[in-house]
């Protein structure tokens, strides 16, 4: 691919790029943008004005302060993103869209290839009504399960997310605690994590962003808050990067009992980079990320007893075997889930779709 290729990176600028706290999609987009820019490509990212990226920025809003009480809701930034995209519609040779089906109504106004990255759970059959009129565009899945839900889409690659492993400190001897890291949305399974931690009689530390939706607020008030005693079930709230790494590296395992088909789950590879095994329900990307019995335990969906048993296995594992599991975790991330590997894969995809697009459209 020619170094003069103009690449656009599009995702919602809810947070700064890279985010200071929560914001996995913004983290991934930042790594792709800076990785390609550092290789000499002309990269522009739709982001916040205070973002720290190697390439160019089209600022949709000034800062990553999503909780500004004067703003009527984050949807306003979604529509501003569309507006900015159309204002700059002639600025790219290829566009990498991380807003999934929301980009589809605009693709016919953009006269270059659009790489549409699937970033959510599309198992509900109604999604076919949205995607299938545009099924011949270029799609990248985050896990192969997404392809089963939408088999007629033109999938050109399956690209796992990657992280800068050097940012994550490996720890062979964690403290006597387990971790949950994510959001308070019911789909993340925080209530299940607390329940199984109690049954297994282990300490659970919770690093979580409170989702601003009414559903999430009710879920937190009714199902989560009453169980927090700050002795065995400890609430840490939303964590910055240092605090997140400290939680992960010092925990015996990450409990990840997701209640949906998780598109990827960046927290799994962040935990594994610290040497921390993952205990998760087998949904979405989990079996592609966690090697059962080697870097954690993959449990049948909704089987809480299996989660409890996995926690007990971690606690009862001989020290030598457990240390080996932690080393396996770090090694798996280094070999399969790095930023370099992810950027390599996107570079190949962009080259492929540009060639294909030009052969069909002149």
CATH class categorisation of the largest domain? Alpha Beta
| DSSP summary: helix tally | 12
String of helices and strands: EHEEHEEHEHEEHEHEHEHEHEHHH
Q: How much beta, percentage-wise? A: 15-25%
Query: What is the typical, i.e. mean, pLDDT?
Result: 94
Give the low-confidence spans.
none
Strand arrangement, largest sheet? 3-2-1-4-5-6-7
The CATH superfamily title of the largest domain: Glycogen Phosphorylase B
The number of distinct structural domains comes to 2
Globular, elongated, flat, extended or rod-shaped: what is the shape? Answer: globular
Helix content: 25-40%
Q: Please tally the β strands and state the result.
A: 13
Provide the CATH topology of the largest domain: Rossmann fold
What does the main sheet amount to? 7 strands, parallel
Task: Describe the fold and architecture.
This protein has 2 domains: 6-162 and 338-361, 3-Layer(aba) Sandwich (Rossmann fold); 165-336, Rossmann fold. The chain has helices at residues 24-38, 75-87, 127-131, 145-149, 190-200, 214-224, 241-249, 266-273, 286-289, 304-316, 319-336, 339-361; strands at 6-10, 42-48, 56-61, 94-97, 114-117, 138-141, 155-158, 178-183, 204-209, 233-237, 254-256, 278-281, 296-299. The chain is 37% helix and 17% strand. By secondary structure, it is of the alpha/beta class. Strands 3-2-1-4-5-6-7 form a 7-stranded parallel beta sheet. The longest helix has 23 residues, at 339-361. The chain has 12 helices and 13 strands. The two termini are 17 Å apart. It is globular and about 65 Å long. The model has no long low-confidence stretch (mean pLDDT 94). Helix 1 (24-38) packs across helix 12, helix 5 (190-200) crosses helix 10 (304-316) and helix 8 packs across helix 11.
